[in-house]
Structure formats: structure tokens, C-alpha cells
Structures
1.
Amino acid sequence: MSPIREELVGVIDCLPEAEQFLLLEIARRFLPDDTATPDDLRDIRQARTEYAQGETVPHEAINWD
């Protein structure tokens, strides 16, 4: 872990939970809206695998009513 990251973690650990939430909201503003999270990337890989193996349901096969 980099020294800056270690210091950030230490500062965050010292903050009350309400202040941690505010800091999280501020940090999120530095992230682009279209950046995939690790969970997103995992789900995309899984979906591509299922599609390649024919494990998907065609749109027409779903009863939307």
C-alpha cells in the first residue's frame, strides 16, 4: 500500500461514521460515471460466458405481461 493510501486509511479510521459518509461522497465525485466496478466487470464476464454457451433466454421468450 502506498504511503498516501496508508495515511488516508488512517484518517478515515479516525473519523466518525457520519463524516466517513461525507468523505465517501466527495471521493465518488472524482470517479467517472461510466467506470465499471470490479463487480460490474465480474458480471460482464459471467454474462459473456453464459451467452457464448447459449445459456441466455431470448427476449421474445419472456412474457412481459
Note: The radius of gyration is 20 Å.
2.
Amino acid sequence: MEEKAEKITVSETVTRDKLAVSAGSGSVEVYATPMVIALMEKAASELAEKFIAEDYTTVGTAVSIEHIAATAEGVEVSAEAELISHNGRSFEFYVTAYDNAGIIAKGTHSRFAVNAEKFLSKAKARAEQ
């Protein structure tokens, strides 16, 4: 197994469409947990791209996140993904998200490399069943 100390950070501003009340994940006007996870996945996906062939992409296979602090609309948030293991087509990340006041979420995320064309073809075939 190959161990990496690779990291990447991505950021976004919490906009109205990213609030729990807008995303359908709650009734409060704060950054929605699914949006926190999406930003964390974006960071992990971008980092994994450095290790795969051009005709491949990665797909998320597992997420274990603790959302520990609320973030209001208009605040910039960042997510960092650290590659903690890479074994063939399998990737494991430690992910954190934070705003100007500190950490808002943390956990782990798994991704798997797939041939993009074949993967999409299989998904379309499932839709026809």
C-alpha cells in the first residue's frame, strides 16, 4: 500500500441555495450538511485526479462526517482533503471543513477510480431495467 501526505483545499461562499432550508435537509438557515459533504467530496475528488489515468474518474463510495458547527449565509467555507491511503483504484481521505471561526465538520471519505465511459454506460443500463 502506498502512503501519501498529499492535501488539497477548496472553498466556497455559503449562498442561499446551500442552506439547509433550501437544500431540504432542515428548517434552519445555516449551511446544509449535504453541502458541507459535497465540498469535502470536491476536495477529495480533485486530489484523486492527480493519481488516475485520463479516461478514469473517481466516485464516492463512503462518507463518515461529523458536522459540529453551524455556518451562516455569506460566510466563506473551506474543505481540506488529505489522502491517507491509496491502494490501486481505492482512495481513503481524512476531510475537514472550516469557516472563519474554525472547524465545522470532520471525518473520512472513500473514493474508487472507474473508467468514466464504462461507469456511465452501466448506470444507463440500470435505468433501462
Note: The chain has a mean pLDDT of 95.
